Amino acid sequence: MRNSSKKEKLYAVIGLGRFGFALAKRLAESGKDLIVIDKSETVINDAVAFTDNAYLMADLSKENLRNVGIQNCDTVIIGIGGNLAVSILTSMIVLQLGVPHVIAKALTEEQGSVLEKIGAEVIYPEREMGIRLANRLLAPRVMEYIALNDDISITEISIPESAQEMTVQEMNVRQRYGLNIIALKRGEEVTVNITPQTVLRAPDILAVVGRHDQHRRQQICEMTTTGIPRTSMEKPKRNCGS
Predict the structure, then answer these.
(1) 20 to 30 A from 167, CA-CA: which of 7, 34, 127, 212?
(2) Is 34 helix (H, G, I), strand (E, B) or coil?
(3) What's the rounded Cα separation, in Å, for the pair 94 and 117?
(4) Residue 209 — φ and ψ, nearest 5°?
(5) Residues with Cβ < 8 Å from 200, sequence gap 6 or more?
């Protein structure tokens, strides 16, 4: 398979466990050109439902990967977290084939450290899911949490009743909590055209970006559980656990 159009990126997912299969299916549903590879015939038969480029492969050799066109990919995601040796070897081969962006799943910090040293970007799906769940439990109005790096995250927050009919200016989350509003979702509609005069209504959802250190998480917890003061002179109450 050749990636003839430079405008359309070609992806590959090697290893279709629960993480890899869900990722591959979502990419395919988004209209992305996609190669998938797994050693399980049953899994590959299921993958054929969303991509024509599904390959059954028990031996992830350089020759076999080249034959299916891995070298033409812009991004390859390696979801073989359970076998460190195979994950490392496959990552090395894909990098040697000239793929510019290789992402490898890791289960432990030690595994991730080795993969990073050979040039792969490392992700920890189980750990990240645990962090997201913890944030939702600590602040029930937090709908989603996405870490952009070690310092910055995007958080989706459901507007509490205390902010009903407030304007963005009155809510003033930038000064109070160090957060910048980047989008507003109301029902099925999403807008980024937000002004200080935009009126908020429960249950609108705000997408905000900011630091996710312990202090900032505490502030978000306070905002979503104890409410938002109506005037700029009031300060948020503090009754969240640390």
Answers:
(1) 212
(2) strand
(3) 15
(4) -125, 140
(5) 159, 163, 164, 165, 166, 167, 168, 171, 184, 206
Distance CA 21, CA 173 (A): 38
Q: 77 near 13, Cβ under 8 Å?
A: yes
Backbone angles phi, psi at 151, to 5 degrees: -115, -30
What is the rounded CA–CA span in Å between residue 87 and residue 83? Answer: 6
Furthest C-alpha separation in the chain: 68
The pLDDT value recorded for residue 150 is 66
Encoded tokens for 45: 């038969």
The residue type at 114: V
Q: Which tokens hold the place of 74?
A: 């812009």
> Which tokens is 38 given?
């797994």
Q: DSSP label at 76?
A: E
Residue whose token pair is 């990919």: 73
Identity of the highest mean pLDDT range in 96-100, 141-145, 209-213: 96-100
C-alpha–C-alpha distance, residues 227 and 160, integer Å: 7
Radius of gyration of the chain from its Cα atoms, rounded to whole angstroms: 22
CA–CA separation, 145 vs 125, rounded Å?
13
Percent of the chain with pLDDT over 70: 76
* Whole-number Å distance between alpha carbons of 174 and 140: 21
In 3D space, the residue among 121, 86, 85 whose CA is nearest the CA of residue 103 turns out to be 121
The tokens describing 107, both together, are 């289960």
pTM over 0.85: no
